[in-house]
Structures are given as structure tokens and as C-alpha cells.
Amino acid sequence: MVTSAAAIDTELGIVKTGKEADVFLIERAVPDSDGRTPGERVILAAKRYRGPETSDFHRSSRYTEGRGMRNTRDSRAVARGSSYGRSVSASRWAYAEFEALRTLYVRGLPVPYPVQVNGSELLMEFIGDGQIAAPRLATQRGTASELYPLYAQVVEIMRQLARAGVAHGDLSPYNLLVHHGRVVVIDLPQLVEVVSNPGGMDMLYRDCVNVCTWFTRQGLGCDADAVFAELVAEMF
User: Entry's Pfam families (predicted)?
Assistant: First the structure.
């Protein structure tokens, strides 16, 4: 990772757009001795949560139940859905995802390395080759035996999340990347504390259903109820 104070960030373009955030490609490089030629460099992903004019954080309350907010003014603004409150929500998502990535990375889960967070922008490791992002699980095709290693990795990710007492909360083949055969989980701002969130169990079960439905459609039999029972057993 490039950590020099002399490093310069250059925006290379957009990777993907979403309802609540856009992801941009950033090159962080340290100029060589002549001050012009790039020396050490790395490609990063900058996830920028949308501001109050274009974003809709209407789903946030479902995921943040059980979490506290220290600033009561901010809490009231978020509850009212004011313009300021929506701005607070954007930054809140970015910081929540940074903390989720940091915690899970330390625990050894396959997530992008979190570099820094500033306001509503989260900078993290780019998963891909060169400037080409790793494909999503949703694009993968193959026989049941070919897909099984990916299925096993996804279930292991869910198992490790369960051991930490959390669920992804919005897991699907669209936020699981496959990079050289390795599954990496992304989009984690809504990470759910299963026990403290009143809807935690329901969201954990929905994650199981989403995953098993996709693999079953590809010809690999998967029992969502069995996976759910296994994950619940990991928690207690």
C-alpha cells in the first residue's frame, strides 16, 4: 500500500453506479525522482455515497436498529429525514462500512482492505486485475462440481460472519466477487448485529435464501433452511 505523504491520487473513471453510492477507480502514485514519472503506485476503489439531492437512504432504519448514535441532533435529523439528516446518513453509511471492513479484515474474512474514510467517501482495496474489476458471482457459469468450490467459500464467509454475531444483511450473487477463484464479499455498510437487531434473524435467513436460490438455479442443490440452522448454531 502506498502511504507516502507525497502520493498523488488520480481519478481514472467510474467502476459502477448504484442507488446509494458510486464506485470510482483511483490511482495513488508517488512521483519518481524527477517529480513527473510515477514511481510506486497502487489502484484503489473510492466508494462515494450519494448526497441528499440524489440518494435515498429509506432502508437504513431496518439495518441500524440496535445501533446507537451519540449526537442527538444528528439522530433527530436522520429520524425526520431532513436534508441535513440525509447528509448525515451518507457519512454514516461510509463510516459504518469502513468499520465493518476493518473488523472483518482483522478477523481474516475475504473483504477489500479498508484504506481510509473521509466524509461520505470510503477508499479501499480494488479487487481486480489492472483496471478491470473482478466479476460478480452472478456472472459465473459451470457444472455443479465446478461451482461447488465457490459455494463452499460463500457458506464459509457466512459461517465466519455468524461466529462474529453478524449477518451481511443484503447478501446476493451481486455483491460477491470472484477473483482468480477466490470469493470476496463487498457492500457491507448494513452489516447487521443479529441478536440486537429485531429483524436480524429474518435478514440472516434472507441471505441464506438469496445464496441458495442462485446456486440451485445453476444446478447445485442448496438447502437454505439447513444453511440457516447451521449459521444459527454458530452463534449460540
Answer: RIO1 (PF01163)
